Amino acid sequence: MARDDAPWLPARPAAGRRADVPEAGAAQPASLPSGSRPSPAVPHEEAPRRRRRTTASSSSRLRSAYLALALATTAVLVAGVAVVPRYGSGPATGTPVADELRRLPTDAAWSLDLAGLLAPDVPPSCVHVWPSAAVDGLVAVGTSVDLETDDAASSPGCRRAAVSGNTSRVALVEAGTGRVRWVHDLAEDVPDADALAIPATQVVPAADRVLVQVQTSGGAAQVALDLDGGDSREVARGRRDLPAVSVAAVGRLQLRAVGGTDDASRRFSLVDAGDLTEPVWQGRADVGTTPLLLESGVVLEADGRSSFVDGRTGAARPLERGRGRGTTLETAAVGPAGDGSLYVVERAGRSRPTVSAVDPLGDRRWTTPVEAGALDVTDRCVLALSPDASSVTCLDRGDGRVLWTRDLGGPARVVPVPGQSRDDVWVVAQRDDGPELAALDVSDGSRRVAVPLGPSDEVVAASRTVVYVVTDDSGTSPDAVSAYDASSGRRLWTSTSPGRVSFWGGALVVVDDSAAASRLVDRTRVGSTS
Question: In this predicted structure, what is the pLDDT of residue 325?
Fold first, then answer.
């Protein structure tokens, strides 16, 4: 299929109104292609004369026909195996299933005028949209005023809007349908919010909340909104003389560095989304170390000892059982849902590092001597990236056995791709001619497909047969998104947009320069060729 480069923005909807959405899955009438004809009827055989041949002659011809048919069938099967696309067949890794867009998407399943919805008093060209990551198909959207606009006539209006601060609304949107569940104005909770600051939003269904962090004249403030109705549940303001900088957020837990991020402080707090004002835990970490936040708690080094702090209770337990003296924790990772173990890389003095699985009581289930600088855990593997990041080893999650090792051909990193199959391990490796995205088969590490990447390319999502890559040149040129076949690496299509493109869960959404958002889909009739 030839590359298809085309602008793809649908017409912007009228302010405050959603575009009409055609009925999804409507049946298409079957019809013959233009100019085609029905197959002619098979004529009746002249039976009397042809049936007088000898039995031996008929049997010989029949055997020859069967032999020819068998040879032809074998050839078709052998040739067919060579050309059948090989895609990962396992289910997606707990992330939203991405749309299967094998053709250039040109239709809008829905459109929203976000400028009119969230900042009606601000010129649309001044509005910058900040969507959260999608969780359970929900995206929280906030806005800020952008003073750097290409529309010179809008600049005075942008400055006035920045002063008035009328851009403090947040909306919760269903990514699949475009339905707006609610809109809440943060001015009711933090009237001194800075209209120029980027609102950081996070959807936390486990706590029934949407968290919004804004910058105010008195420092950072965080507002917890009710997931169902958008009502304010809690406001937490940091102390101006003792600022708390967010280091990481995973699930309903947040790790904050208290008093700054320099090594002289090293004070941290662990906060649960259900109670922003009362930290679950506060403590210190050794200079030169950074606590590692996991979904269930935080791992840290303090006074030369490794500990795990439970994210529910704040209780700390030492990770010392089965460890030798002088053993340091270098990195750690958590397993998939239902796996209570920690996977850690440790080193005792100058000895070779080891990878261990540590159960919830701190006991080691297994330990394997493997050179590892980073870990990633899948359903089947504990992936240990070598210290120079040029190779990856798959350790069996159950007993730590080395299942396979693969040379990646250069410095690389494991890249979890939203929507990817459990049969795949995606890595980005730096090669002499540029970065390359490759899918490794999780069963043996064999390379299934490779896609060349540009220096500004980012892998954003994958469906069963398509991998999506967005090119972001930081505003110097329009965003571009490319779709690649996940079996051959062949580029299916590429298109540019004057706005911002991203995946809201599994939906491809473009936000144009007037802050109108549209979910792009392909409504090509099923049965057409790709």
Answer: 56
